Structures are given as structure tokens and as C-alpha cells.
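Batch manifest, entry 17 of 40.
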Amino acid sequence: MYRKPPLLISVLAIIAFVIVLSVLFVFLLKLAVLVLIFAAAYYLYARGARVLNRDPRRKRGPWWFR
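Output type: C-alpha cells
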């Protein structure tokens, strides 16, 4: 027949589970912040490259339109 574990073991297991979940949550939060930072950096880089690449003498449009 199944015996319930002692209360101390149950409490320790719940505390360990909460700690593991919080560590996982913090890791995913850090990962999301890093992804946002890289996305913002790439956006600024692409915008700066587009602005610097603009040449007023260059014709606009596809190659068959020139």
C-alpha cells in the first residue's frame, strides 16, 4: 500500500521545484532581453546602412526600368 512521504520531504520537494522553475524563468527572461537587444542593434545597423548607402545620383527602380 502507498505511504505518503513525510511532510518535510514534501515541503522540500515543493521548494526545490519552485527554485528550479524560477531559475528557468530567469534564464528565459535573460534570453528574451538578449534577443531584443540584438534585434534593436540589427535594426539600427540596417537603418544606418540604408541611410549611408543613399546616393542622390543613383537611379531608383528595377534594372529594366533604368
